[in-house]
């Protein structure tokens, strides 16, 4: 172990002059991006850094009232957990098979599925609802809602609860493991439901469908609203374009697409850490903020597949909402992008200022003394704090991989 730490410490030495230029914007936590990248790409990263960050996150989450280990044991015990033969009939795109969130099998494993909702905090979701409503998001009475990339249904259940007038709510995901957990959660008895870490109400309107969001198999022009909640950052931009096209295909004319997404580089240290477990995050962040394109690359891609009336607004200091519509038959899409993000900008309150100031000071001390253990503990705390407030991917180093 000592040898590992010595090697890691050498990786964490101050960066050469060129990489100093990449030192993180926002200052404070003064580890250069190149320095961090070197550590993250080291073969020792998985062996030492990830388990340590995971431990800290679980402990911090538990101190903040998330009963992580209890909830994990509890959901595991709700098995038996097995996949059905039908699940293998769905074609899985290559990008989806890559390691993700520190799981070797990405989302295609039980650990990821059990921990997904435990790791996901709901604090920012209400802000999405408000921003979507401000942009004219509407679901007609009896309407059909589809939640693409629903995970184990956390966003689907929320969608159903927020729209009692809807007739049906279908969650779609590529991971049969997540869907199995989601279906199991929905069939729990009342007494058991209260044990879960997320809101859980029985709702006969909800169904969960195993499919690629880019090829749902749903009928053309059959859906009133498609939701994409915190999905696109997990995809390469080409796949995102395919999903937009599928959303357009299944929406009836006049139907709406709702998207909730995050400003990914607002905390560079956190971004670097998450980036190390999410292969498409860099490409997505570049695409999302594409220069000279109002609303970024996504708005252009939405317009390209035929959407119009694209509107964006801030939900929190870190999260944004987008609403766009499939034009009515015979109408050309209104291509003007109404980007209200600057006008609706919110303060970034995701980290409690006093805590982050304290963390920065402690990080500076740990760096000065070369205390690697401390640096990793502080990184874990930072991630847990961010997660506690609800980032797009709060706990990138899930604990099953210790
Ligand atoms: C960060 S989770 C978001 C889950 C949920 N919508 C929420 O708001 O918490 C992203 C989900 O997108 C799913 N996903 C990624 N690519 C997909 C695809 N091509 N088709 C269907 N689901 C996909 C993943 O399996 C994962 O469950």
Description:
With 402 residues, the chain is of the alpha/beta class. The protein has a single domain, classed as Rossmann fold (3-Layer(aba) Sandwich). Helix content is 42%, strand content 13%. It contains 16 helices and eight strands. Strands 3-2-1-4-5-7-6-8 form an eight-stranded mixed sheet, sandwiched between helices. Helix 8 (154-162) links the parallel strand 1 (144-148) and strand 2 (168-173). Helix 4 packs across helix 16 and helix 5 (68-76) packs across helix 6. The longest helix has 20 residues, at 44-63. The chain binds S-adenosylmethionine (SAM). Residues 96, 107, 120, 149-151, 154-155, 172-175, 178, 212-214, 229-231, 234-235, 239 line the site of S-adenosylmethionine (SAM).
Number of strands: 8
Which class in CATH terms?
Answer: Alpha Beta
Shape: globular
Distance between the termini: 16 Å
How many domains is the backbone divided into?
A: 1
Helix coverage percent: 40-55%
Question: Which fold name fills CATH's third level, the topology?
Answer: Rossmann fold
Average predicted confidence as pLDDT: 79
- Portion in strands: 5-15%
Please, what is the CATH homologous superfamily? Vaccinia Virus protein VP39
Structural class comes to alpha/beta
Which second-level CATH architecture applies? 3-Layer(aba) Sandwich
The helix count comes to 16
What small ligands are held by the chains?
A: S-adenosylmethionine
Spatial strand order of the main sheet = 3-2-1-4-5-7-6-8
């Amino acid at each position: 172990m000592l040898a590992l730490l010595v090697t890691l410490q050498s990786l964490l030495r101050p960066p050469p002059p060129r990489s100093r230029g990449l030192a993180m914007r926002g200052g404070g936590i003064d580890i250069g991006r190149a320095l961090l990248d070197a550590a993250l790409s080291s073969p020792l990263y998985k062996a030492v850094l990830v388990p340590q960050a995971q431990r800290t996150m679980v402990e911090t989450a538990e101190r903040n009232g998330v009963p992580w280990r209890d909830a994990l044991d509890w959901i595991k015990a709700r098995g038996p957990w097995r996949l059905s033969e039908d699940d293998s009939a769905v074609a899985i795109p290559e990008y989806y098979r890559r390691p993700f969130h520190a799981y070797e099998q990405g989302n295609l494993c039980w650990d990821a599925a059990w921990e997904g909702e435990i790791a996901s905090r709901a604090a920012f979701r209400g802000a999405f609802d408000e921003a979507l409503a401000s942009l004219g998001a509407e679901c007609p009475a009896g309407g059909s809602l589809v939640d693409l990339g629903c995970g184990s249904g956390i966003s689907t259940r929320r969608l159903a609860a927020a729209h009692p007038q809807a007739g049906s709510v279908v969650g779609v995901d590529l991971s049969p493991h997540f869907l199995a957990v989601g279906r199991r959660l929905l069939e729990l008895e009342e007494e058991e439901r209260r044990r879960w870490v997320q809101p859980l109400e029985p709702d006969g309107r909800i169904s969960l469908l195993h499919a690629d969001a880019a090829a749902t198999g749903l009928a053309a022009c059959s859906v009133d609203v498609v939701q994409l909640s915190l999905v696109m950052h997990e995809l390469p931009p080409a796949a995102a374009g395919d999903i937009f096209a599928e959303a357009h295909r299944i929406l009836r004319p006049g139907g709406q697409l709702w998207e909730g997404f995050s400003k990914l580089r607002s905390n560079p240290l956190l971004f670097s850490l998450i980036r190390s477990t999410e292969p498409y995050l860099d490409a997505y962040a570049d695409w999302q903020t594409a220069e000279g394109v109002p609303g970024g690359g996504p708005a252009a891609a939405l317009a390209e597949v035929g959407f119009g009336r694209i509107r964006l607004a801030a939900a929190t200091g870190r999260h944004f909402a987008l609403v766009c519509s499939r034009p009515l038959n015979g109408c050309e899409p209104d291509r003007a992008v109404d980007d209200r993000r600057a006008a609706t900008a919110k303060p970034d309150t995701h980290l409690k200022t006093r805590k982050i100031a304290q963390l920065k000071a402690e990080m500076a001390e740990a760096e000065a003394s070369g205390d690697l253990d401390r640096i990793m503990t502080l990184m874990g705390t930072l991630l847990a704090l961010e997660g506690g407030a609800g980032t797009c991917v709060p706990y990138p180093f899930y604990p099953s991989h210790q």
